[in-house]
Amino acid sequence: MKKTSKRYLVLLVAICLIVFLIIPAAVFAYDFPSTNQLNKDKLTPGYEGKLTPYVELVEAGVGYVNLNFVGGYVGGAFFEYRADGVALTSGTAHPVVSGDFIYPGVWVVANTIVNETLTANEYVEIRLCLGGERDWDFDWTRFDVLLPIDVSIDIKPGSYPNSINLKSKGVVPVAVLTTETFDSSTIDPTTVEFAGAAPVKWHLEDIDKDGDIDML
Questions:
Q1: Which string of b and e fits 35-65 if b means at least 16 CB within 10 Å?
Q2: pTM to 2 decimals?
Q3: Which of 28, 36, 165, 212 is the most buried (most CB within 10 A)?
Q4: CA distances from 148 to 62, 140, 142 (A)
């Protein structure tokens, strides 16, 4: 009985190893011939000096990236995208990447640029493996979004308590304080809202008298 049990155990381990080695290889079976950076630099293998499809970052904001999808000198390109590395587990089978599925994407024809804003919690990834040509395909390329940060504010500086009446139609002074991890002088005041209200005027001043500059 002991010899039989060991024989079955060895057989089970061997089967598990075979499954472990074979299945992952079949899930994403595609050798991407290029990279996004090589395409952007016109260094695509075999197409050096020619414009091949690529994507470039225009702007990164809190929770989003704005990207330019650039078409190549010939044919069309379908750039797939995904957010935060979330992989599809079902859908339309991918005709190029064996075992994978087709993600949402952006179609770009030759010699054109399409601008898109994509949202994510941490990052957006783009890959190219659909379209007219396969010679300049590239695997998932990451573009990070900006992450929100906590800032300290002082409503009606110098008053206590720091209360506010949201139904009031008056002007309320609000200071954004500079800390060791945040410089309030870097704020673009035109992008700020407090309780849905935009600032009508602003200036820089050491509000809390700690030696650094705050924004009021």
A1: bbebbbeeebeebeeebbbbbeeeebeeeeb
A2: 0.69
A3: 36
A4: 6, 25, 19
